[in-house]
Specification:
Elements lengths: L2 E2 L11 E10 L2 E11 L4 E5 L6 H8 L7 E6 L5 E4 L10 H11 L4 H14 L15 H14 L4 E5 L7 H15 L12 E5 L3 H7 L2 E6 L2 E7 H6 L4 H11 L1
Parallel strand pairs: 1-10, 4-8, 4-9, 6-7, 7-8
Antiparallel strand pairs: 2-3, 2-5, 9-10
Helix pairs in contact: 2-3, 2-4, 3-4, 4-5
Bound molecules: adenosine-5'-triphosphate (ATP).
Adenosine-5'-triphosphate binds next to strand 3 and helix 1.
Protein name: Phosphate ABC transporter ATP-binding protein
Family: Belongs to the ABC transporter superfamily.
GO biological process, one term: phosphate ion transmembrane transport
Length: about 250
Protein backbone atom coordinates (compact mmCIF):
# COMPACT_ATOMS: atom_id res chain seq x y z
CA UNK A 1 0.00 0.00 0.00
CA UNK A 2 1.24 3.49 -0.80
CA UNK A 3 1.50 5.97 2.08
CA UNK A 4 0.07 9.10 0.60
CA UNK A 5 -1.19 12.43 1.91
CA UNK A 6 -2.84 14.96 -0.31
CA UNK A 7 -0.98 18.21 -0.70
CA UNK A 8 -2.95 21.47 -0.37
CA UNK A 9 -5.11 22.09 -3.44
CA UNK A 10 -2.98 24.07 -5.89
CA UNK A 11 -4.19 27.46 -7.14
CA UNK A 12 -2.55 26.82 -10.48
CA UNK A 13 -2.60 23.86 -12.87
CA UNK A 14 -0.03 21.18 -12.05
CA UNK A 15 3.50 21.42 -13.38
CA UNK A 16 3.55 17.65 -13.94
CA UNK A 17 0.91 15.02 -13.90
CA UNK A 18 1.89 11.38 -14.30
CA UNK A 19 -0.67 8.64 -14.62
CA UNK A 20 0.42 5.05 -14.46
CA UNK A 21 3.86 5.86 -15.89
CA UNK A 22 6.17 2.92 -16.51
CA UNK A 23 9.64 2.84 -18.09
CA UNK A 24 11.22 -0.36 -19.29
CA UNK A 25 14.81 -0.82 -20.41
CA UNK A 26 14.87 -4.26 -22.04
CA UNK A 27 14.14 -6.65 -19.20
CA UNK A 28 14.48 -3.98 -16.49
CA UNK A 29 11.31 -2.28 -15.30
CA UNK A 30 12.87 0.99 -14.12
CA UNK A 31 9.52 2.62 -13.24
CA UNK A 32 6.10 1.10 -12.81
CA UNK A 33 2.61 2.56 -12.32
CA UNK A 34 3.83 5.95 -11.12
CA UNK A 35 0.98 8.35 -10.30
CA UNK A 36 2.21 11.78 -9.37
CA UNK A 37 1.00 15.36 -9.52
CA UNK A 38 3.40 18.20 -8.78
CA UNK A 39 2.04 21.68 -8.07
CA UNK A 40 3.90 24.94 -8.76
CA UNK A 41 6.34 25.88 -6.00
CA UNK A 42 6.64 22.39 -4.52
CA UNK A 43 10.08 21.14 -3.52
CA UNK A 44 9.95 17.41 -4.05
CA UNK A 45 12.70 15.04 -2.91
CA UNK A 46 13.02 11.62 -4.54
CA UNK A 47 14.66 9.08 -2.29
CA UNK A 48 15.23 5.33 -2.24
CA UNK A 49 17.93 2.70 -2.64
CA UNK A 50 20.32 2.59 -5.62
CA UNK A 51 18.49 1.58 -8.76
CA UNK A 52 14.99 2.34 -7.42
CA UNK A 53 14.27 4.66 -10.35
CA UNK A 54 15.04 8.19 -9.12
CA UNK A 55 17.15 9.18 -12.13
CA UNK A 56 14.71 7.58 -14.52
CA UNK A 57 11.82 9.55 -13.03
CA UNK A 58 13.78 12.82 -13.31
CA UNK A 59 14.71 11.95 -16.89
CA UNK A 60 11.05 11.32 -17.71
CA UNK A 61 10.10 14.70 -16.20
CA UNK A 62 12.75 16.40 -18.33
CA UNK A 63 11.80 14.55 -21.51
CA UNK A 64 15.08 12.60 -21.66
CA UNK A 65 13.37 9.23 -21.20
CA UNK A 66 10.06 8.20 -22.69
CA UNK A 67 7.40 6.38 -20.70
CA UNK A 68 6.85 2.88 -22.09
CA UNK A 69 3.37 3.02 -20.58
CA UNK A 70 1.05 5.55 -18.97
CA UNK A 71 0.86 9.26 -19.52
CA UNK A 72 2.87 12.36 -18.63
CA UNK A 73 1.27 15.78 -18.86
CA UNK A 74 3.42 18.89 -18.49
CA UNK A 75 2.17 22.36 -17.57
CA UNK A 76 2.05 24.68 -20.55
CA UNK A 77 4.90 27.00 -21.37
CA UNK A 78 7.04 26.26 -18.36
CA UNK A 79 10.80 26.35 -18.83
CA UNK A 80 12.83 23.56 -17.29
CA UNK A 81 16.50 23.09 -16.46
CA UNK A 82 18.20 19.93 -15.22
CA UNK A 83 21.41 19.38 -13.26
CA UNK A 84 23.31 16.14 -12.93
CA UNK A 85 25.60 14.65 -10.31
CA UNK A 86 28.58 15.44 -12.53
CA UNK A 87 28.03 18.64 -14.48
CA UNK A 88 28.79 18.65 -18.19
CA UNK A 89 31.27 21.46 -18.84
CA UNK A 90 32.69 22.44 -22.21
CA UNK A 91 36.42 23.12 -22.41
CA UNK A 92 35.82 26.86 -22.37
CA UNK A 93 35.56 29.61 -19.77
CA UNK A 94 32.93 29.42 -17.05
CA UNK A 95 31.30 32.50 -18.56
CA UNK A 96 31.24 30.90 -22.01
CA UNK A 97 29.60 27.78 -20.56
CA UNK A 98 26.79 29.84 -19.05
CA UNK A 99 26.43 32.16 -22.06
CA UNK A 100 26.13 29.25 -24.45
CA UNK A 101 23.07 27.95 -22.57
CA UNK A 102 21.40 31.34 -23.04
CA UNK A 103 22.45 31.61 -26.68
CA UNK A 104 20.93 28.19 -27.37
CA UNK A 105 17.68 29.61 -26.00
CA UNK A 106 17.77 32.44 -28.51
CA UNK A 107 19.50 35.21 -26.52
CA UNK A 108 21.89 37.35 -28.61
CA UNK A 109 25.53 36.53 -27.89
CA UNK A 110 26.36 39.99 -26.51
CA UNK A 111 23.39 39.89 -24.11
CA UNK A 112 24.13 36.27 -23.26
CA UNK A 113 27.65 37.21 -22.16
CA UNK A 114 26.37 40.05 -19.93
CA UNK A 115 23.65 37.90 -18.40
CA UNK A 116 26.05 35.03 -17.81
CA UNK A 117 28.26 37.32 -15.73
CA UNK A 118 25.25 38.26 -13.57
CA UNK A 119 24.42 34.57 -13.15
CA UNK A 120 27.99 33.82 -12.07
CA UNK A 121 27.78 36.69 -9.58
CA UNK A 122 24.63 35.12 -8.20
CA UNK A 123 26.56 31.94 -7.35
CA UNK A 124 29.60 33.87 -6.11
CA UNK A 125 31.86 32.92 -9.02
CA UNK A 126 32.34 36.17 -10.93
CA UNK A 127 36.02 36.05 -9.96
CA UNK A 128 36.64 32.90 -12.01
CA UNK A 129 34.42 33.79 -15.00
CA UNK A 130 37.39 33.67 -17.39
CA UNK A 131 38.79 30.38 -16.09
CA UNK A 132 38.47 27.16 -18.08
CA UNK A 133 35.43 25.44 -16.54
CA UNK A 134 37.06 22.00 -16.79
CA UNK A 135 39.84 23.12 -14.45
CA UNK A 136 37.43 24.16 -11.66
CA UNK A 137 36.75 22.05 -8.58
CA UNK A 138 33.66 19.80 -8.50
CA UNK A 139 31.84 22.25 -6.24
CA UNK A 140 32.68 25.21 -8.47
CA UNK A 141 31.58 23.30 -11.57
CA UNK A 142 28.26 22.50 -9.93
CA UNK A 143 27.85 26.19 -9.07
CA UNK A 144 28.56 27.07 -12.72
CA UNK A 145 25.89 24.52 -13.67
CA UNK A 146 23.49 26.22 -11.25
CA UNK A 147 24.36 29.61 -12.76
CA UNK A 148 23.72 28.16 -16.23
CA UNK A 149 20.32 26.92 -15.05
CA UNK A 150 19.47 30.10 -13.13
CA UNK A 151 20.38 32.32 -16.11
CA UNK A 152 17.50 30.72 -18.02
CA UNK A 153 15.03 31.73 -15.28
CA UNK A 154 13.54 28.25 -15.21
CA UNK A 155 10.10 27.59 -13.76
CA UNK A 156 11.15 24.04 -12.99
CA UNK A 157 14.51 22.90 -11.68
CA UNK A 158 15.32 19.19 -11.80
CA UNK A 159 18.45 17.96 -10.00
CA UNK A 160 19.79 14.42 -9.98
CA UNK A 161 21.91 13.94 -6.83
CA UNK A 162 23.52 17.37 -7.34
CA UNK A 163 25.74 17.19 -4.26
CA UNK A 164 26.55 13.47 -4.18
CA UNK A 165 30.15 13.76 -5.35
CA UNK A 166 31.06 16.93 -3.45
CA UNK A 167 33.02 17.40 -0.21
CA UNK A 168 31.03 18.63 2.82
CA UNK A 169 31.90 22.31 2.32
CA UNK A 170 30.97 22.35 -1.38
CA UNK A 171 27.87 20.29 -0.55
CA UNK A 172 26.70 22.98 1.82
CA UNK A 173 27.44 25.79 -0.66
CA UNK A 174 25.53 24.08 -3.46
CA UNK A 175 22.67 23.23 -1.11
CA UNK A 176 22.34 26.87 -0.02
CA UNK A 177 22.23 27.94 -3.67
CA UNK A 178 19.57 25.32 -4.39
CA UNK A 179 17.46 26.77 -1.57
CA UNK A 180 18.09 30.27 -2.92
CA UNK A 181 17.04 29.32 -6.45
CA UNK A 182 14.01 27.39 -5.21
CA UNK A 183 12.90 30.53 -3.34
CA UNK A 184 13.12 32.68 -6.49
CA UNK A 185 10.56 32.87 -9.26
CA UNK A 186 10.42 31.65 -12.83
CA UNK A 187 10.24 33.50 -16.11
CA UNK A 188 6.58 34.40 -15.55
CA UNK A 189 7.66 36.70 -12.67
CA UNK A 190 6.72 37.07 -8.98
CA UNK A 191 3.81 34.88 -7.94
CA UNK A 192 5.18 32.04 -10.06
CA UNK A 193 7.52 30.23 -7.72
CA UNK A 194 10.14 27.83 -8.97
CA UNK A 195 9.24 24.15 -8.69
CA UNK A 196 12.10 21.89 -7.69
CA UNK A 197 12.36 18.11 -7.96
CA UNK A 198 15.63 16.57 -6.78
CA UNK A 199 17.03 13.19 -5.84
CA UNK A 200 19.28 12.69 -2.85
CA UNK A 201 20.75 10.08 -0.54
CA UNK A 202 21.34 12.77 2.07
CA UNK A 203 18.33 12.77 4.39
CA UNK A 204 19.54 15.87 6.24
CA UNK A 205 19.50 17.68 2.92
CA UNK A 206 16.03 16.31 2.19
CA UNK A 207 14.79 17.69 5.53
CA UNK A 208 16.37 21.08 4.85
CA UNK A 209 15.22 21.51 1.26
CA UNK A 210 12.09 19.49 0.55
CA UNK A 211 8.44 20.23 1.17
CA UNK A 212 7.44 16.74 0.06
CA UNK A 213 9.18 13.37 -0.02
CA UNK A 214 8.63 10.53 -2.45
CA UNK A 215 10.09 7.17 -1.56
CA UNK A 216 10.60 4.80 -4.49
CA UNK A 217 11.16 1.07 -4.39
CA UNK A 218 11.74 -1.07 -7.47
CA UNK A 219 10.41 1.73 -9.65
CA UNK A 220 7.16 2.20 -7.72
CA UNK A 221 6.08 4.96 -5.32
CA UNK A 222 5.84 3.49 -1.84
CA UNK A 223 5.36 6.72 0.09
CA UNK A 224 4.45 10.25 -0.98
CA UNK A 225 4.15 12.56 2.02
CA UNK A 226 4.77 16.12 3.21
CA UNK A 227 8.30 16.26 4.61
CA UNK A 228 7.19 16.54 8.25
CA UNK A 229 4.88 13.51 7.97
CA UNK A 230 7.57 11.48 6.21
CA UNK A 231 10.08 11.96 9.00
CA UNK A 232 7.66 11.90 11.91
CA UNK A 233 4.74 9.74 10.96
CA UNK A 234 4.32 6.01 10.36
CA UNK A 235 5.90 4.67 7.16
CA UNK A 236 5.65 1.43 5.24
CA UNK A 237 8.28 -1.00 6.61
CA UNK A 238 10.67 -0.75 3.66
CA UNK A 239 10.73 3.06 3.81
CA UNK A 240 11.15 3.06 7.59
CA UNK A 241 14.13 0.70 7.37
CA UNK A 242 15.67 2.75 4.57
CA UNK A 243 15.42 5.95 6.62
CA UNK A 244 16.89 4.21 9.65
CA UNK A 245 19.78 2.85 7.57
CA UNK A 246 20.56 6.17 5.88
CA UNK A 247 20.45 8.08 9.18
CA UNK A 248 23.19 6.06 10.91
N1 LIG B 1 19.86 3.25 -19.98
C1 LIG B 1 19.57 2.17 -19.24
N2 LIG B 1 19.59 0.94 -19.78
C2 LIG B 1 19.30 -0.16 -19.04
N3 LIG B 1 18.94 -0.12 -17.74
C3 LIG B 1 18.89 1.09 -17.16
C4 LIG B 1 19.21 2.29 -17.87
N4 LIG B 1 19.07 3.34 -17.01
C5 LIG B 1 18.70 2.81 -15.82
N5 LIG B 1 18.59 1.47 -15.92
C6 LIG B 1 18.16 0.56 -14.84
O1 LIG B 1 16.92 1.03 -14.36
C7 LIG B 1 16.83 0.92 -12.94
C8 LIG B 1 16.60 2.29 -12.33
O2 LIG B 1 17.78 3.08 -12.50
P1 LIG B 1 17.90 4.60 -12.03
O3 LIG B 1 19.22 5.08 -12.50
O4 LIG B 1 16.69 5.34 -12.41
O5 LIG B 1 17.91 4.43 -10.41
P2 LIG B 1 18.39 5.44 -9.29
O6 LIG B 1 17.41 5.31 -8.18
O7 LIG B 1 18.62 6.79 -9.85
O8 LIG B 1 19.79 4.83 -8.83
P3 LIG B 1 21.07 5.53 -8.13
O9 LIG B 1 20.66 5.93 -6.75
O10 LIG B 1 22.09 4.44 -8.14
O11 LIG B 1 21.45 6.71 -9.00
C9 LIG B 1 18.13 0.27 -12.50
O12 LIG B 1 17.92 -1.12 -12.40
C10 LIG B 1 19.09 0.59 -13.63
O13 LIG B 1 20.09 -0.39 -13.74
Amino acid sequence: MVARASVAAPDHPPVFSLRGVGVRYGLVQALQGVNLTVAPGERVALIGANGCGKSTLLRVLHGLAKPSSGQLLRGEGSRQAMLFQRPHMLRASAQHNVALGLWLHGVRWRDARAQSLQALQRVGLEGIAAQNARTLSGGQQQRVALARAWALRPDVLLLDEPTASLDPHAKREVELLMADLAASHGQAGPGHPVTMVFSSHNLGQVKRLASRVIYLEHGAVLADLPVHDFFNGPLPDAARLFVKGEMV
